Amino acid sequence: MSASLHPVSPGCGVEIRGVELARLSNSDMGLIRDAFHEHGVIFLRDQNFSREDHLAFARRWGEIVINEHFPELADTPEIAVVIKEADQKTNIGGGWHADHSYDPAPALGSILVARYVPECGGDTMFAHMARAFDTLSDGLKANLRSLRALHSSRQIYGPGGAYDGTDLKQVLKADGALSDAVHPVVIRHPETGREVLYVNPAHTIRFEGWTREESLPLLNHLYAHATKPEFTCRHRWTPGCVAMWDNRSTWHHALNDYHGQRREMHRITIAGTMLDAA
Length: 278
Ligand SMILES: O=C(O)CCC(=O)C(=O)O
Ligand SMILES: [Fe+2]
Description:
The chain is an alpha+beta fold. The protein has a single domain (4-270), classed as Clavaminate synthase-like (Double-stranded beta-helix, 4-Layer Sandwich). Helix content is 20%, strand content 29%. It contains six helices and 17 strands. The strands form four sheets. Strands 1, 2, 3, 4, 5, 6, 7, 15 and 17 form a nine-stranded mixed β-sheet that branches. Fe (ii) ion binds next to loops.
């Protein structure tokens, strides 16, 4: 069977058919790499994909990062378990974010495998930040290119953060280190060379040299722009579906609309590099 590409929406995401990830040829790896860079997130359904296959595919991209906060598989610490039990209310990733933007060298991307999914619900939204940036006015683009922003894991994982006092808190690692980093607001994508808007609602605190209060109106304007339907797609999971997103050029949001049903996903995070200004 030969590989074919099927965009999920005009603005973001592509489904790749006719590829068995566990037996990936070098030419299909090239096709996957190109699709990943253009569309920001790739989806491959009905994969017979063991933990070993997951690790081997991840290692084709780079080194694996162990997340400080997520629970992990007992015998495979490289694989994080993104789980919500039927009696749990709070999910992991239930708001727009880019993974690990609080790290000095943020993760390149994440590879998520659907192990157990609700009959319906539990979809994930994605948004393409190069396309979002391209469609801002020239005046705003020029201003944003001169800014840097502070990111932190504290708003989500820290004391008083989004997960504090929720039923997710006991699932997360208790001793995960918190981290802060400053990045350009407009980065030059390390692979594609495209300009990308690099702030996100979950982890960006403020612009460097500005207060949080001063930063919020402009941040909120950017967030409203970036999540317009034309830059986003909505992905419906099926068991055995594998998704891989580019963490520098996309955001994602795991919808929490399936209370009473169990959902379990396995995730590997790939190490990235420091990000340069555009
Ligand atoms: O469960 C999902 O669909 C995504 C959760 C998430 O944000 C992540 O794994 O990084
Ligand atoms: Fe995430």
